[in-house]
Amino acid sequence: HANWGGVGVTRFSSILASAIVSPFPHARMAPYASAGVGGYANSGDGMRTGWSLGLGVRFPAATHVLLESRVHAFRWNGSDLPLGHPGYTTSDKWKYVWLPISLGVRF
Fold first, then answer.
1. What's 56's DSSP letter?
2. CA–CA distance from 1 to each of 4, 11, 12, 47, 51 (Å)?
3. How far is CA 23 from CA 53, 84, 96, in A?
4. 72-90: per-residue pLDDT in tens?
């Protein structure tokens, strides 16, 4: 479970489109930076606008194996939480979540 900045939920799904920039685009193993935009959803709560930034390393394989660290940010309206809950708010606010290590595969 993740602590999504006190928003009262433990799991989100996301769909992102990201751009990746590498100083060594043709090297088999190379560092890269990424930036993306998209949507974040909690079950039954609808899609929320968001973005992400990351740094990582691409490893050689038949498909690219990626090891990265990424920050996600999304809009959250905490008015659906109980009054007095730490995540309660009456307006949209940006919530930030850092994923220190992610492992991925790019085809």
1. E
2. 9, 7, 10, 20, 21
3. 17, 48, 27
4. 888 776 555 555 666 555 5
pTM of the model: 0.71
Spatial distance between the Cα atoms of 12 and 1, rounded to a whole number of angstroms: 10
How far apart are alpha carbons 88 and 103 in whole angstroms?
33
CB atoms within 10 A of CB 41: 15
The HSE-up count of residue 105 (CA atoms within 13 Å, CB side) is: 4
What 3-state class would DSSP assign to 83?
coil
Sequence-distant (≥ 6) Cβ neighbours of residue 59 within 8 angstroms: 29, 65, 66, 67
* Rounded Cα gap, residues 24 and 62, in angstroms: 18
